[in-house]
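Handout, tutorial session.
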Amino acid sequence: MIRGVIFDFDGTLSDSIPVVIELLDEVFAEFGIDVDAKKAEPLIGMDAWKIIEEITGIHDRKRIDDIVQRWAKKYVDAVLVENRIKLFDNVKNVLEKLRNMGLRIGISTSIISPIANKFIEHYGLTNYIDALSGADEVERGKPAPDIFIKTADKLNLPPENTIVVGDAEYDILGGKAMGAITVLFAPNSTKNNTIKPDFEITNLDDLIDLIKNMQKSKIRISSK
């Protein structure tokens, strides 16, 4: 029986990825780094320091930290000051339907929790979210399952009664490692054959019917 849903934030609830890549491109220009920021797109969800190191080849921790901090500052401003990043359509409607179904709702994000909570408040999602875990609360980031386990613990949910919804391979890998049912949200229908979720949806609304059908049939999808 499904008792709760844990969402990723960037690219799942928030249509942020295009802007996040634009901002990284701006940061690279400021730092004189000749790297295509689009290389970071499939890595979004990982630890930001690892993303920068992987796509730039820079290993100086101080320089990486300067880049990440500048990127993070631009991202926060894009959300809270410039309103450049919107939620996906029907996010609030879907969350409300989930709550009306008696399900608990959590967020596991690679954003640090103080900033993530500001985002949740900014978007008017506070009353829909029962628990949130940020990157600062776990030692290992995605694709390790730690952040999903942290949120499930806060929700008092066993993994087998939990659905993890995310747009990236790292969300699916983390959800599977936790033992949850995994749902890939692919709004652009760009199927990635390396990602093997239990289910795939192109619209968040589809999650409601998916859960209803699972509840009726009492299906438990193996995440092994």
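The second record follows below. Compare its token runs with those of the first.
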Amino acid sequence: MDFKQAVKEVVADPRYKKNIEYGISRSGHPEGKVKFHITDLETNLESLRHHLLREEDYWKLKFLIHVHDTFKAEAAEGVSSIDPLSHESLARAFASEFTNDTDLLNIIQYHDENYALWKQFRSTGSYDDQRFISILNMIKDWDLFLAFTIVDGYTKGKDLEKLPWFINEVRQHKRTRVDESWIP
């Protein structure tokens, strides 16, 4: 699949153009609008590019950047990531119009799970093991998922402690090239 072309098609889509204008400055997203978040993530991607082994991974990450939060404007608030009206589910449905890559679609669906698990761990000292195991089994390309976790999570307003924590949790169970040295 040509993800470079898919990115071009995504950014030309009228739904995308409308939805990236959504957002106000808030906790975790002081940049406000989705389009400003995308700009930050593209900068992060460039800082990680030298770690990527394949050009295809660069374009998959770019695709993820442009799709993952694009449907926050249309999402129901306070629903789980698997709810059909969550921003994750809406983004996954949109992405499925451009790719049938199940792993990439799963990354879109579960891209915020690292944060949910981190919040549990930080407040209680533990997290939902079954939720974590489910993600471990759902995702195939852990290099891509963790690279995206860094790209999406290394921004102003985000708790940066979650990045090395989550990477190390995954590395205890899955083989991945990504380690703490990837964090800018």
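Points raised in discussion: Residues 34-48 form the longest helix (15 residues).
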